[in-house]
Amino acid sequence: MKSATTSTPDSITTTAPQADHRDAWERLYRGYADYYQMAMTDEGLATVWGWIHDDAEPFHCRLALSASGEPVGLAHFRPMPSPLRGTRVGFLDDLFVDPVYRGSGAVEALFDALKQEAKRQGWPLVRWITREDNYRGRAVYDKLAMHTNWQTYELKL
């Protein structure tokens, strides 16, 4: 099920992106890519947008919407096998909130939506990584989750 909508008391709601959210989603995702200094191509954006709307693709998105319905944040997530647990867990690939809306409850709303989806999927946990110097993000994550002692590596090909 790709579509779901939830709301929070502080007027931030979350929803799966609809076709008319495309431009706002792209603006947010480009902001995320800029933060991580990753080149973003139109082809890459089209691919990710396609994944979001393909029910056969195990990739999901939730948007945080302001009281006026404007997308102000996004979360991309998916199932991930956890062989040691013998089950799937959730993996949060991307999380970004427009800087103007940070502190508005958008992050908390996105995490609430993520928790609801994780429960629906039967995931025992959701895992993610962030940059070491993402101090503002890490301050929020430290309130919402447990910091683990795992180190991340990449094998470039």
Explain the layout of strands and helices.
Blueprint lengths: L4 E3 L5 E3 L6 H14 L6 H12 L6 E6 L5 E12 L4 E11 L8 H16 L4 E2 L7 H10 L13
Parallel strand pairs: 5-6
Antiparallel strand pairs: 1-2, 2-3, 3-4, 4-5
Explain this structure to me?
- By secondary structure, the protein is of the alpha+beta class.
- It has a single domain, classed as Aminopeptidase (3-Layer(aba) Sandwich), CATH 3.40.630.30.
- The protein is 33% helix and 24% strand.
- It is built from 4 helices and 6 strands, in the order E-E-H-H-E-E-E-H-E-H.
- The chain has a 6-stranded mixed beta sheet, sandwiched between helices.
- Strand 4 and strand 5 form a beta hairpin.
- The model has no long low-confidence stretch (mean pLDDT 93).
Distinctive features:
157 residues; alpha+beta; Aminopeptidase; 33% helix
Quick overview:
With 157 residues, this protein is of the alpha+beta class.
Query: In terms of quaternary structure, what is this?
Result: single chain
Our measurement of the CA-to-CA distance between the termini, rounded to an integer number of angstroms, reads: 34 Å
Main beta sheet: 6 strands, mixed
Number of contiguous helices = 4
Q: Could you name the CATH topology?
A: Aminopeptidase
Share of residues in helices:
25-40%
The CATH first-level class comes to Alpha Beta
Form type = globular
Tell me the strand order in the biggest sheet: 1-2-3-4-5-6
Q: Which CATH architecture would you pick? A: 3-Layer(aba) Sandwich
Note the run of SSEs as H and E: EEHHEEEHEH
CATH superfamily: Gcn5-related N-acetyltransferase (GNAT)
What structural class do you assign from the helix and strand content?
alpha+beta
Low-confidence stretches: none
Task: Domain count, please report it.
Answer: 1
User: How large is the radius of gyration?
Assistant: 15 Å
What's the average pLDDT?
93
Percentage beta strand: 15-25%
Q: Give the strand tally.
A: 6
